[in-house]
């Protein structure tokens, strides 16, 4: 196990799961104090985001985005090779960001801020009690103030005939691929499926089919934004099939070749539209479930394994304000930045309670989880959004106005010759404030934080007139949006 040779069995705070949410919860709970904290982790400190999700996926996507910009920039385009990116170099850069799945630097960081790292699997064994099972056996740990659950989620592979036996890729394989299959079936239409399909095509997959059970991609974003992504996929030669599911898979030669390698011979896939595909690999991106198996929730009166978490991040149904949950496991907003946000709130609550301070006030409530969640989807084009879509707002009972404008401003034209984008603001008529915003286009990720601030701050649109966008930037679209509601 990592940590001090004679690590104590009593800590002020014990965190199960050392991903970004767990790390932040532990750090905030003990910062500036003599309190002690332990991170319990059975894989890698840094979690899914650092090694298998956010970091490697964006490292795979960014080089091709830069190449596309260069190809649409006179004075640069003629200097660019007609071929695509240097795939081995892209893989090497990704591996630098993931430290080749070596967590030494993350462990060193934890120790530097006073957090012990305990290797092994942790499970609740009653109030404020954790059983740690590791290479050296089993220990019983006690938490004086808090136990924080931050074990995240795991991918779901549907139990369909032959699918699991075929050893399909999950997101971990797709982000850590070391060889490019020629023919791929991506199963799913959500964020992971769409981002994965984007980089697979850009890195050289020749035949790429996307099987979507519903009638559209990205069902939780504004339809106009999702449609632009779908149109781009079709333009790039992807075969996107809606209302389609796997009926059966046959893969006679299956091989456990390791993460990111093709898992055997070709697979034959029967689809519900009556067609049959032969592919070199299947990527399943149909959702994730809470990693709550074996957490010992029944020992604290939570037999169903489904956590409900209050705004102070305490777990409902457990007395004593000692059990907390953050990140994807909490089921509130399954995004790394939201998990870290919850963890900061959680750590502050734990620290205040440990010191006998009041937890009244907005700092101690995770209010952003309710209709104020920002997200960027790194497809081509990008989608950046915060808050509710127009449909969600109406379903929630708001009377809304929707302000729309193409992103057709000087800053966009200067960014690249083929720039195309669209933006929409969802405005609550009763308060004249934003409750949602969506941007779609090349490199719109940096636009969403301004919308987030306006939404969280409940800034009236008349006041937003005085937030002047700099010229010439893509942010000028804000002026176009506000102008669209002039009488």
Automatic annotation (TrEMBL):
Query: Can you name this protein?
Result: NAD(P)/FAD-dependent oxidoreductase
Taxonomic source organism: Rhodococcus sacchari
